[in-house]
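Task: sequence design from structure.
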C-alpha cells in the first residue's frame, strides 16, 4: 500500500486515557515495521511528530474527558484507517466499569476534592464517537496480532480477528480446567482469546481482560459461578470489570432483580 502522497505508508501511534501498555507492545515490535512504513507521530517514543494525514493510526485509551474526545475526532479526520488497540479503546475497560457503579462527578470529588477544576466524561470506547475500522482487544494487545493487523492494512485488506473464547486456547495447550477442577471463578468461557490463555496456564482464573468473546453467554456464566458458591454481586462485578457492553447483562440484571424480591 502506498500513502495518499505516493510514498512509504505513514503511520501514527497515539493515546487517550489509558495505561500505555499497548504503546509499549507497539514500541517493542516497531523495528519489524520500519522497513515498510514511516512512523510520523508517536509522542510516547519520539519528540518530533507530524500532525498531517496518515494511512494508519493505532489509538489506545478510552474517551474519558473533553480533551480525549476532541483529540479522537482530529485523529479520525486525518486517518485513512483507525485501529482501536487495547481493551480501553475497544470496550472502555476498568474506567468504563467504574462509571457504571457511580456518577463520574462523585468519583472526581472523592479523588480531587469539591473544588476540582478537572473536566471529565463517563469513560467510553472509541466507536461510541467515531468510525473505527479495526478493533484489536487485549490488556495489553498481543504482538503477533498487532503485526498481522498491520500487514493486512498495508495490503489494503481489513483483517479477520477471531473472538473465540479463551477456553479454546486452554484446550490447544491441554491445560486442566481451573473452573471445573479447581472451582476458580474463571471467565475463560466468555472472554475473547488472543492472550494464549496466560492465566489458566499457570493455574489462575481468567479475569476477562480481553473483553467478551463472540456470543458470550454471560447469564450461563453467572449461573455456573453461583453454583460454585460465588455471590451474584461478586459475579456481576467480575464480569463487568473490563467494560463489557451493558446489553450483555440485561437478562442477568432482570433475573437478579427477581431473585432479590
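Answer:
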Amino acid at each position: 500500500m502506498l500513502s495518499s502522497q505516493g510514498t512509504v505508508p505513514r503511520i501514527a501511534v497515539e493515546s487517550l486515557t489509558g495505561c500505555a501498555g499497548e504503546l509499549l507492545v507497539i514500541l517493542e515490535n516497531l523495528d519489524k515495521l520500519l522497513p515498510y512504513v514511516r512512523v510520523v507521530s508517536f509522542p510516547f517514543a519520539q519528540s518530533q511528530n507530524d500532525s498531517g494525514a496518515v494511512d494508519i493510526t493505532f489509538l489506545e485509551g478510552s474517551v474519558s474527558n473533553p480533551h480525549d474526545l476532541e483529540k479522537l475526532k482530529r485523529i479520525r479526520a486525518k486517518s485513512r484507517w483507525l485501529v482501536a488497540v487495547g481493551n480501553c479503546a475497544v470496550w472502555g475497560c476498568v474506567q468504563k466499569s467504574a462509571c457504571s457503579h457511580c456518577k463520574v462527578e462523585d468519583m472526581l470529588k472523592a479523588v480531587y476534592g469539591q473544588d476540582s477544576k478537572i473536566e471529565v466524561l463517563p469513560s467510553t470506547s472509541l466507536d461510541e464517537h467515531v468510525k473505527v475500522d479495526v478493533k484489536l482487544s487485549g490488556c495489553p494487545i498481543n504482538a503477533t496480532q498487532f503485526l498481522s493487523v498491520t500487514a493486512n492494512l498495508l495490503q489494503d485488506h481489513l483483517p479477520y480477528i477471531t473472538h473465540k473464547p479463551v477456553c479454546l486456547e486452554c484446550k490447544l495447550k491441554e491445560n486442566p480446567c481451573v473452573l471445573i477442577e479447581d472451582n476458580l471463578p474463571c471467565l475463560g468461557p466468555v472472554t475473547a482469546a488472543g492472550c494464549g490463555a496466560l492465566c489458566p496456564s499457570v493455574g489462575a482464573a481468567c479475569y476477562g481482560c480481553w473483553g467478551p468473546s463472540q456470543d458470550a453467554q454471560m447469564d450461563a456464566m453467572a449461573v455456573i459461578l453461583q453454583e460454585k458458591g460465588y455471590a451474584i454481586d461478586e459475579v456481576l462485578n467480575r464480569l463487568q470489570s473490563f467494560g463489557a457492553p451493558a446489553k450483555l447483562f440485561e437478562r442477568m440484571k432482570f433475573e437478579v432483580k427477581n431473585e432479590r424480591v
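The chain has a mean pLDDT of 90.
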